[in-house]
Every structure is written in structure tokens, then in C-alpha cells.
């Protein structure tokens, strides 16, 4: 019996040989940045748009490889923000972000909690923006702005938002933490109370303790060698996608039926282009295996649970275009689903699935997807053994990945919109 969704989907995962044959530059570039190729890749490729979404978002939301060649102080701060925004949501991402931060020059003392005023400002900013619901204040933003340029602050926001995607997917799936990541970070992180949890089956062992080296000339040369191949994939995946909001709004209206005004405050061209491509792919009816109706149901439940009224409004407006039958009464029922207790035994799970089928005229698979989505929408997720068994029994592997990627994208938008709601008042 699988104890995580990732373990239950191993037989459906795409093998490493195929991934390297198809995407070698992408995989190797990530390895240069954090020392390992993440175990999520074979799982994501089960639903190819999921793999594409992840591999588009990561370099663009972290401004890679530009960040690597930029200010040493800022890239260390970005790594620290990534780490701090993950601590409460995902042990897997906490380890990876710690490794990224150390490689970019962050101090081990800052990870452990002994910080300068600048480092503490970054940590507070990241933790509060990542909190569910967001607790970030204008005073927190002003404190960060004392230490960074406006452009740098924006990139901190984008990186924290991207960690929202990663936190949601890795935690909900229970992706297994790589041994090299454990060796790089576990001894340091153990000083903070970190445990690997579900990402190491409740236990881990350091086999060869080492501290990651900070970026040096060899790092830069290796990144330069891999970057061109990764850029070719990005150009292929974003061909024809605009990089300014005004044009992107028209493009999204044409491809999804909605202009996504939630993206209007985003000014960085590569971020606009990437988010536009990700939304296009995740709302493409032809590529969906669960159907857009269930994605709208799940999106509304998610936005309700994270208490984000801006995102909730976006989902309602999007639903009007994609699922016109999703009326006020159905939205009210979905509000009720968001408030339900997650079942913790098989009998309660079966009872709830039957109720969802009846309330919303769903198939068994659709009801199971909605239950899985609801449990996933909490941070950390509330996916237990019975939810896992239900999902693996009634949902095909590509559908599991699709709903997880969709909710992860919404978590990114949740953090992003919370920042702009505070600073822009929209």
C-alpha cells in the first residue's frame, strides 16, 4: 500500500533514460543549480503539460540564469527568501531551497536563525507572504525596500510565489527527497527543527555530510554550457506568447476565454510570458484529461480555503466563460465542500464521495478528483492514507498530475496576488 501519491504512481512515471533523451539540457541545468535532478520530473511527465509548466516556470520565476551571474548579495537573499517561504509548507522544498541558498552564498547562520537586519527583513517578508492567509503588511514591504531596489523586491516576490507552486506540488505528492539533498542540508536544517517527514518515509540518514560550495567560475562555465539547450525548449514552448500584459490579456482571452486581470501588475516580461503560457496550457480543453469543469470546482474550493478574494473572483469570472452552468447555487455548495472535514477512514471517505457525486452530478472519478483537490488545498496538504487509496483506485495517473499542477499554479497566483493586493490595492 502506497504511503504517498508519488510512491503510488511510480509504475506510471516516465523513466530517467527517456527524460534525459528528450530533455537533457533542462535536467542538467537544474543539477548545476542545486546539485541534483529532482525526483519530481518523472512524475510530472506522466501528464506532459505538467512537466512543461514546471520547467517553464522555474527558470523564469527565479530569473535564471541571470540571477546566478548577478549580485552575490541579492542571489543569496533570493535563496534565503525561497527557504523561508517553504519552511511551513514543504520539507522537501525546504531542503532544496536551503541547498540553492547556500550555493548562492547565503550564510549558514542565516539559515539557522542568527540573522542580520537585512536577512531578517527577507525572512519576515517571505514567511508572511507565504502564510495562509497572507499576513504581510505594508510595513514589512517598506522594511524590505530599505535593503533592495524596486526591481530586486519584485524578483523576491516572484521567487516566493514560485515556491508556492513547488511547495504545493512536492508536499501533496510526497516526492521522495534525494540522498544528495539530505547529505547537503540535513545536518544544518536539523538545527532548525526540520524533519524530512513523508519525503523520506518518516526517516532519513546522512551518508556523506557535505556543505554545498558557493558559486564559482566552474559553476558559471557549467551553467553557460547547459543554458542554450534549455533556452531552445523555452522558446519552443512560448512561441507566439506575448510578454506585456496588454497583449497577453488579448492572447489569453483568445486561448482561454478570459483575460486574467490578476496578471496586470506584473511588469517583468519573462514572467508575463511564462505565466501566460502556463495558464494557456493548463486551461487547454484538448490537453485536459479531467475536464475544465472539475478544475473550476477545485479552483473555487482552493481560493476559498486560502481566503484570497481576488483569486476567488478570478475563478468565478473564468468559470462564467468555461463552465456557464456553474451558477450561484453550485458556488454555494462548493463553499460548503471547502468547509467540510477531510475524511480519515475508508467509510467516511466513501460516504463523502457518494455525497459529492449526488450534489454535483459527478462521475466516480470526478468526485475522487474533487476530494483529492480539497485535501490538497490545505497547506500543508491533508492527504491521508484513505485519500491516497481513493485517488489511486479511481483516478488515472495523468489526471492526478493535472489537478496537482493546476492547484500548484493557483498557489503561485495566490502569493503573487496577495502581494499586489496589498501594494497596489487591486
Overview of this protein structure:
The chain has three domains: 5-233, no CATH class; 238-282, no CATH class; 292-395. 68% of the residues lie in helices and 0% in strands. It has 22 helices and no strands. It has helices spanning 5-8, 16-34, 40-44, 48-61, 66-69, 72-86, 91-103, 108-112, 117-130, 138-145, 150-173, 179-189, 217-237, 245-256, 269-282, 292-305, 309-322, 328-339, 346-360, 364-377, 385-394, 397-424. Helix 7 (91-103) crosses helix 12 (179-189), helix 9 (117-130) runs antiparallel to helix 10 (138-145) and helix 16 packs parallel to helix 20 (364-377). It is globular, with a radius of gyration of 20 Å.
Q: Tell me the quaternary state.
A: single chain
Structural class: mainly alpha
Q: What is the domain tally?
A: 3
**What percent strand?**
under 5%
Question: What is the mean predicted local confidence, pLDDT?
Answer: 96
**Quick one: overall form?**
globular
Please outline the helices and strands:
Layout: H1 5-8, H2 16-34, H3 40-44, H4 48-61, H5 66-69, H6 72-86, H7 91-103, H8 108-112, H9 117-130, H10 138-145, H11 150-173, H12 179-189, H13 217-237, H14 245-256, H15 269-282, H16 292-305, H17 309-322, H18 328-339, H19 346-360, H20 364-377, H21 385-394, H22 397-424
Distinctive features:
about 425 residues, mainly alpha
Concise synopsis of the structure shown:
The chain is an all-alpha fold.
Amino acid at each position: 500500500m502506497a504511503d504517498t501519491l508519488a510512491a503510488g504512481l511510480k509504475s506510471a512515471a516516465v523513466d530517467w533514460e527517456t527524460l534525459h533523451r528528450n530533455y537533457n539540457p533542462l535536467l542538467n541545468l537544474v543539477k548545476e543549480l542545486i546539485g541534483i535532478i529532482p525526483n519530481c520530473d518523472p512524475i510530472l511527465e506522466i501528464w506532459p503539460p505538467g512537466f512543461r509548466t514546471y520547467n517553464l516556470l522555474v527558470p523564469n520565476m527565479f530569473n535564471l540564469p541571470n540571477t546566478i551571474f548577478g549580485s552575490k548579495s541579492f542571489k543569496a537573499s533570493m535563496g534565503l527568501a525561497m527557504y523561508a517561504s517553504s519552511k511551513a509548507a514543504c520539507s522537501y522544498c525546504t531542503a532544496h531551497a536551503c541547498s540553492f541558498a547556500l550555493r548562492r552564498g547565503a550564510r549558514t547562520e542565516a539559515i539557522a536563525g542568527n540573522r542580520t537586519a537585512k536577512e531578517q527583513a527577507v525572512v519576515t517578508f517571505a514567511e508572511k507572504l507565504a502564510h495562509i492567509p497572507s499576513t504581510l503588511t505594508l510595513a514589512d514591504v517598506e522594511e524590505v525596500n530599505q535593503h533592495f531596489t524596486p526591481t530586486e523586491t519584485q524578483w523576491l516576490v516572484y521567487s516566493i510565489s514560485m515556491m508556492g507552486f513547488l511547495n504545493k506540488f512536492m508536499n501533496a505528492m510526497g516526492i521522495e527527497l534525494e540522498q544528495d539533498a539530505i547529505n547537503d542540508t540535513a545536518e544544518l536544517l536539523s538545527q532548525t527543527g526540520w524533519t524530512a517527514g513523508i519525503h523520506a518515509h518518516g526517516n532519513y540518514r546522512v551518508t556523506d555530510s557535505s556543505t554545498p560550495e558557493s558559486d564559482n567560475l566552474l559553476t558559471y562555465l557549467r551553467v553557460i554550457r547547459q543554458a542554450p539547450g534549455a533556452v531552445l525548449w523555452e522558446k519552443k514552448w512560448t512561441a507566439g506568447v506575448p510578454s506585456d500584459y496588454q497583449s497577453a490579456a488579448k492572447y489569453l482571452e483568445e486561448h482561454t476565454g478570459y483575460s486574467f486581470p490578476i496578471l496586470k501588475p506584473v511588469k517583468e516580461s519573462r514572467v508575463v510570458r511564462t505565466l501566460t503560457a502556463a495558464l494557456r496550457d493548463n486551461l487547454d480543453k484538448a490537453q485536459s484529461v479531467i475536464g475544465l469543469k472539475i478544475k473550476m470546482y477545485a479552483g473555487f474550493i482552493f481560493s476559498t480555503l486560502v481566503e484570497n478574494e481576488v483569486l476567488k473572483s478570478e475563478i468565478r469570472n473564468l468559470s462564467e466563460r468555461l463552465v456557464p452552468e456553474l451558477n450561484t447555487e453550485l458556488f454555494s455548495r462548493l463553499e460548503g465542500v471547502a468547509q467540510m472535514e477531510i475524511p480519515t477512514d475508508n467509510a467516511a471517505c466513501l460516504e463523502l464521495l457518494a455525497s459529492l457525486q449526488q450534489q454535483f452530478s459527478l462521475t466516480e472519478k470526478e468526485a475522487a478528483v474533487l476530494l483529492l483537490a480539497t485535501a490538497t488545498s490545505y497547506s500543508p496538504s491533508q492527504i491521508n492514507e484513505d485519500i491516497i487509496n481513493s485517488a489511486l483506485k479511481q483516478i488515472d495517473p495523468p489526471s492526478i498530475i493535472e489537478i496537482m499542477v493546476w492547484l500548484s499554479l493557483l498557489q503561485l497566483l495566490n502569493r503573487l496576488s496577495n502581494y499586489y493586493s496589498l501594494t497596489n490595492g487591486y
